[in-house]
Each structure stands twice: as structure tokens, then as C-alpha cells.
Amino acid sequence: MRSRSRFAIALVLATALGAWLIWTSIGGSLETYTNPSGLRQTDTSTYRLNGMVNAGYGSAPAEQAQTAAGLTFVVRDKQNSASTVQVKYHGSVPDPFAVDREIVVTGHMQDGVFIADRGSLVTLCPSKFMEKGAAKGTAMPATSKAVKDSSGQ
Fold first, then answer.
1. Tell me, what DSSP letter sits at residue 59?
2. Which residues contact residue 43 at a Cβ distance below 8 angstroms, ignoring those fewer than 6 apart?
3. Is residue 153 part of a domain?
4. Is residue 6 assigned to a domain?
5. By C-alpha distance, which of 75, 53, 71 is closest to 63?
6. 40: containing domain
7. Which residue ranges of the chain lie beneath pLDDT 50?
8. Domains held by the chain: number
9. Residues 93, 120: contact at Cβ < 8 Å?
10. In 1-153, beta strands by DSSP E
11. Considering the domain boundaries, does residue 131 fall inside one?
12. Which residues make beta-bridge pairs with 105?
């Protein structure tokens, strides 16, 4: 009788642990992935915002993001550059963060501003796609630094 109760307790604990692992693993995928055109200004849902960084955020963005005021910058839609949203962010800023760099940030809308979750800023590196672009004969992204050839050109 005692072994049956131990088995039942172990089974309940294993089921609870399995349910908790499933819940935490799909938690990030429950956020809506969108761009500035797809944001609803009055919706307070959590979004994963994808877009391009606009100019005008000032110098030293990593330092600004650590202040009480935070880093404020504008993200534009990749397909519709007229569609933009202001983002307020606190946390670490990846080194590749720059104008015309593609980013993804998680957060929510509040009073017409996208309030990003602390530490959720990720930059997407164009270097992953350069080999494919070179094979197709397309130009490198504008934010890439050109490498001088051996003649110094």
C-alpha cells in the first residue's frame, strides 16, 4: 500500500513538472511578432517588434540605455518606411546597434510609445546573409563597412 502511494505522488509530481516545462518553453512564442505597421496603439498586449533603426537617437546609446530616462529611438517598418514607432528601452545595447540595422525588441504599447522589456533588444546581423547576397550578385547592406583591397582602394 505504501509503495502505491509513493508511486501516485511521484506520478503527480512528474506530471506537474512536465506541465510546467511545457508552459515555460512555449511562453515566448505566445507573443505576437509584428512590425510598426502591425502595432495597435491602444492594445497593451506583449509584442515582439521587428524593424529598422532610424537616425536620431543620439550618441552613446549603450550609456543612454543605462540611465533612468533610458534610450529612446525610432523603429521603421522594413516594407513601409513611413510607418514608424518610438521605442523606449532600458538594458544592455548590443554592439551592432546602429542606424539602418534590423532589430527585434519585446514589449508593449503605452501612450503611443513602445515600452520595451529590460534587456530584450536584439540586433540582427546582416553578415549571416552576405554570402547569399554575394552569390546572387546583390550589394552589401549600407551599414556594412567596405574592406579595402590590397591596393588600398
1. S
2. 109
3. no
4. no
5. 71
6. 30-136
7. 138-153
8. 1
9. no
10. 32-34, 47-53, 71-76, 84-89, 102-110, 113-116, 122-124
11. yes
12. 49
